[in-house]
Amino acid sequence: MTNSARKILVVDDDGLVRENVVLFCERLGFDVTSCATVASAMGHASTGEFGVVLADCFLPDGNGIKILEEMSLSHPDMSIVMMTGFPSIEAVIRSLRLGAVDYVIKPLNLYELKTILERAAQKHTYALSAREALRLAETAGSGANGPITQDVDKRRSQIAETEFASSGVRY
Fold first, then answer.
1. Could you tell me which of 97, 92, 67, 62 has the C-alpha nearest to residue 80?
2. How far apart are the C-alpha atoms of 27 and 118, rounded to whole Å?
3. What digits encode the pLDDT tens for the residues 127-170?
């Protein structure tokens, strides 16, 4: 089973930037796929196989925010980082409100990018773990009459009987 948190999609229309980011990500241990357009990115990202997407805001066939909007809805566990060479406060705020985990400005500071990508991969891993824990709790019957709740109630009764019985207090 591959670790999806270590799979990254790099989306940038500047071939030199894209190739350098791909090489950098590979050195960090990421399994990298890259593309240059919104359409191509949507095709790749729709598979849900990526833990992290690093997308440029301005692409030849549209705005990278579209990638963020659609992937945040269809793959909420996916960590999306937006990047641009033309930053604005409005774009940063919009990206973060739409679910971007971070926003980086070109030219890229590789130390900063490393930190951001590692944090994004970690966030993806945590999101998957939380979803799995919720699934396990639901299948284990954690409802009002499920075995987990019954076990908790049983232990609560045992504690109440042993700790408070001598004082006459009942739980």
1. 67
2. 12
3. 888 888 777 777 775 555 666 666 666 666 655 454 344 444 44
| Mean pLDDT, rounded, for 115-132 | 90
Q: Which amino acid is at 36?
A: A
In terms of pTM, does the model score above 0.85?
no
Positions of E strands within 1-149: 7-11, 31-35, 52-56, 58-59, 62-63, 79-84, 102-105
Q: Are strands 58-59 and 79-84 parallel, antiparallel or unpaired?
A: unpaired
Nearest to residue 38, comparing CAs of 55, 54, 22?
Answer: 55
For residues 39 and 58, give the distance between their C-alpha atoms in angstroms, rounded to a whole number: 13
- Give the residue among 10, 123, 36 at the shortest CA–CA distance from 76: 123
15-27 helix and 110-139 helix, angle to the nearest 10 degrees: 60
Cα–Cα distance between 95 and 112 in angstroms, integer?
18
Question: Which pLDDT value is given to residue 28?
Answer: 97
